[in-house]
Amino acid sequence: MNALSLKKGASRKSAYDLKNPLDDRQETHTLAILVDNESGVLARVIGLFSGRGYNIDSLTVAETDHSGHRSRITVVTTGTPAVIEQIKAQLGRMVPVHDVHDLTVEGASVERELALVKVQGTGDKRVEALRISDVFRASVVDSTLESFVFQLTGAPEKIDAFIDLMRPLGLIDVARTGVAAISRGT
User: Fold this and answer.
1) In a domain, 85, yes or no
2) Coil, helix or strand at residue 111
3) Beta partners for 61?
4) HSE-up (13 A, CA, CB side) for residue 131
């Protein structure tokens, strides 16, 4: 850079100093990872996330192919577009990983979660909890004179809304499975 191009008070800018505001936006992505069903694989996948400071919002794992000894790990994670791409690339290079699908960008998908919600209440609060559970199509899987345990399935947003409505009615405890997701269509 020559002296004529720098005016008094102007500073030098490097290409590394220029930030694209779109790169800083946080996105939530659902990743479906097909892996060998063997000991230590889940720990290695989770180690990739924790070792690099990536957050996991939801995690579900189950064997999906008994004869082929394969499991499916569904991870919901949040990060910038660059971080999401880095996660997918690093997962794809792992030896026990057979396939990585970003369901968020590959097209329409179905996401569901199961929750058990325990609510304590008597009188009007008890009646209101039952009314709300009916609206959300939650089923009562346990009942005592002082409490209910509701079972609810649906999108995570639906479960969040149900939990928010149960808080003032005597919410005691919540157990959630995490997101299970699959792409729609062929």
Assistant:
1) yes
2) strand
3) 73
4) 8
CATH code of 39's domain:
3.30.70.260
Distance between CA atoms of 129 and 89, rounded to whole angstroms? 46
Question: Do residues 185 and 107 make contact, with C-beta atoms less than 8 angstroms apart?
Answer: yes
Contact criterion met (CB below 8 Å) for 110 and 140: no
The number of residues in the chain equals 186
What is the phi/psi pair of residue 115, to 5°? -135, 145
Whether residue 120 is found in the same domain as residue 164: yes
What are the backbone dihedrals phi and psi of residue 46, each rounded to the nearest 5 degrees, phi first? -65, -35
Each residue of 140-167: pLDDT tens digit? 999 999 999 999 999 999 999 999 999 9
Q: Which two tokens stand for residue 58?
A: 């939801």
DSSP-derived pairing of the beta strands 171-176 and 109-120: antiparallel
Same domain, 59 and 123: no
Q: Model-level pTM?
A: 0.78
Instruction: Report residue 166 as tokens.
Output: 């149960």
